Input
Amino acid sequence: PAEPAPAPAPAPKPAARPPTVRHRMFQKILIANRGEIAARVARTARALGVRTVAVHSDADARALHVEACDEAVRLGPAPVGESYLKGDAIIAAALATGAQAIHPGYGFLSENPDFAEAVEAGGLVFIGPPAAAIRAMGLKDAAKARMEAAGVPVVPGYHGERQELDFLAGEADAIGYPVLIKARAGGGGKGMRRVEAPEDFPEALQGAQAEAKAAFGDDRVLIEKYVARPRHIEIQLMADAHGKVLHLNERDCSLQRRHQKVIEEAPAPGMTPQMRNEIGAAAVRAAEAIGYRGAGTVEFIADASDGLRADRVYFMEMNTRLQVEHPVTEATTGLDLVEWQLRVAAGEALPFAQEDLAPKGWSFEARLYAENPAKGFLPQTGSLARLRLPQTTARVDTGVREGDAVTPHYDPMIAKVISHGTTRAEALGRLAAALAETEVAGLATNLDFLQALCAHRGFVAGDVDTGLIDRDVGELAAPSPTPPEAAPLALITALGLLSSARERSPYDAADGFRLWGHERRGAILEGPDGAVETRIDIMGDGRFSMQGDTLLTLSGPPDALRVAVGNAAARPVAFARDVGRDGDRIHVLLEGRTYDFTLPDPFASASEAAVGGDAVTAPMPGLVKRLSATAGASVREGQTLLVLEAMKMEHRLLAPRDGVVERVLHAEGAQVEDGALLVALVPLED
Ligand code: ADP
Ligand code: ADP
Ligand code: MG
Output
């Protein structure tokens, strides 16, 4: 057989012709992320006809983001260090599957310049800025110095080299209290301490340094003036590879808790077109100064003590990636930011003019998290026994489905709910309506908290600042009162009387159910308001009497069950039961609200009894990050015994009282289960 003729050597190009810019859309990309953002990138890629490769850990083998892509590559076990942070394995997966580019999403490797460089060195396109631009903005102190040089106003403060306590304390005095100590390598609100007065400075500095060292391996800090009545205002940027940088207006992310965003909106309340131009231009200058390309966000902090004023807006940091809250910009500009990330990464020029990009209407995004506001917003893990997300009132970006688990390995975000309207009031009304449509059972969420926020007078009036949530957190996070029928319904579920409630006629005794004679059952259930003694009398035909008096009647088929209390009209009720774990958790869903109950665990008291004094147990599954307790040491109430890392947060477990450490049950680095005994204390002998 004849060998195919070698292709003729290409004719030399005429020297006069300008180099042609490659802008052919990718045929296949790899998405180096998980959860909602991976699924969201896949959606746009599909719409553009680009094939997608997912990567996943073992915990995510059947995750939604894997299903959303055309093919998938396993990276390794669940911990991020063995999966989503394995840059080499991700690049190898891209090469093996024939992907031409890698989209990093947010978090994970998205702001890692070494990864961006390695991707390009492998002959692939990094869908993001050049490594040098990521590096320029990676450390907050260097970024501020650079921005100052580019004529962008920065938060007053010290961001130099020196790190000695005396020197920094002197700088803090010069800046004027209150000040904010920030980890220069910080992110996600970590390594930050607000200091009110000079006497608190040394301890706060030590705390910030320790947290920064632990979280980022870098204990260097900067000191900033704590801006009065702060508002977080950020500018979305999009830059192409041909030197064009456009801004896509601002977002207001002032609704925060512990420096982390909760609800975001665009535009910012009170923003004038002129001020938008000024802040937008400053953000564009920032991007131009570092040769930026792709999507990015410049974050500013505004002193709003006299309303929004352009001369009181300061550069804070730049996030060199797509941001969690990008959908509110999409809703108000009509642009798909992921589409433009792909297009500019493929070399396409931005065809828009700045004048064409003014915001249209208003948009909100609420972040639905698996966390328990009533317990200090403790992250929750478990199975999403029920998940109903709004269908029509809002856009929903999610990475999970009903039945999926929220694990301690990753971010506990369940979904982002995004509304749009012609006015702020309309958009906020739609957000509230969408949240009212949302139902989650199986684990505690911040859903009620988000709904309470939507009704907050200051927020409704657009009078926002980063202290709003903290000031009113008591009211906002207050659990809604548990209706009296919730516990009896939980008991009915626990006893398995539910599915047949309607069919159960007085003549039917198939499962030994006693006829006529009112069987009485009772249990102590651990509910939202603590332990409740619950009694029901089973009267047959779907009728029960609760606590010995009020009649509770169940009707309808199990999947559309209704409950009536006394003479009140019947209301729909949904039950969900978490069959994971020990099968001891029951969730009652009434009118969109979930009430969680736990059946008493007969073994719990036994294991507690084994400990002489106090047992310090894990409030959630996690990793023993640091141990301060040693057996035999005496400790004071409130002293840190150990630091548990779970869901990317560090939780300090404190001594409940003065005592002596009797036993330490796990070493540093141990992965522990929810409820595991960690440290046993015995009383001080005097
Ligand atoms: P934004 O929420 O505005 O996009 P953040 O800096 O709060 O910006 O974080 C974006 C995402 O990046 C978070 O949801 C989180 O998943 C991830 N992330 C942020 N900081 C860290 C961190 N220190 N370690 C790991 N992931 C982080
Ligand atoms: P991160 O990298 O963790 O996102 P940022 O520097 O963006 O760190 O700050 C996070 C949040 O902390 C801001 O959104 C704002 O609410 C608050 N913050 C930061 N700097 C200041 C400041 N100088 N004054 C008041 N609040 C600040
Ligand atoms: Mg930030």
Remarks:
- Confidence is low (pLDDT under 50) at residues 14-20, 500-517, 602-612.
- The two ends are 98 Å apart (CA to CA).
- The CA atoms of residues 296 and 320 lie 5 Å apart.
